[in-house]
Amino acid sequence: MTTQILLAGSGGQGLLFAGKFLTYAAMLEGKEVSWYPSYGPEARGGTSTCSVVFSGEPIGSPIVAQPDILIAMNLPSYLKYEPDVRPGGLMIADSAMISEKSARDDIRACYLPATQMAYDEGLKGLANMILVGRMLKETGMFAPGTVRLAMEKCIPPGKAAMLALNLRAIALGFGE
User: Which whole number is the average pLDDT over 47-60?
Assistant: First the structure.
């Protein structure tokens, strides 16, 4: 089975890191994976997306046109990509940044005030991982041991203190 994930928001929100984390987790579970970042020349503050595709078989294209899962971190991304979520898919939106609610009844929509949660918990800049945590809860796609090992692979040795913070953010999104 192939899973197509689109993470969308503004540059600086950690979308590429979240995509890299998902890529490592899928690889650790023996999946074929593609990771395709896209961001404007503005870098921080500009449009940013990251497509992650994983499958039990070779992947023909890294392009995600109709995501199974959308994580939207700002209103422009929500407005642009929410209509593209495949019927039966999952959309997770940061309700601290997005006040709109989906009118679609053919997708599962989750709203989590991730940016506010991150601020309240002293995890500034980790709203991305709170939303990923909610996605993991909703889908059950990776084993807990895989989550920790993938995060260990993503955090460089010079930023080892970030491991516990990222794992805490995932746990918050999971509801723990």
Answer: 93
- Percentage, residues of the chain above pLDDT 90: 85
CATH number of the domain located at residue range(s) 3-174 in this protein:
3.40.920.10
**What are the sequence ranges of the domains in the chain?**
3-174
Residue with the two structure tokens 């994580």: 71
Q: What is the pTM of this model?
A: 0.94
CA distance 3 to 148: 21
Order of strands, sheet of 32-39, starting from the edge strand that comes earlier in the sequence: 32-39, 47-55, 3-10, 69-72, 90-94, 108-112
* pLDDT value for 1: 86
Give the three-state DSSP class for 31.
coil
What CA–CA distance (Å, rounded) separates 164 from 171?
10
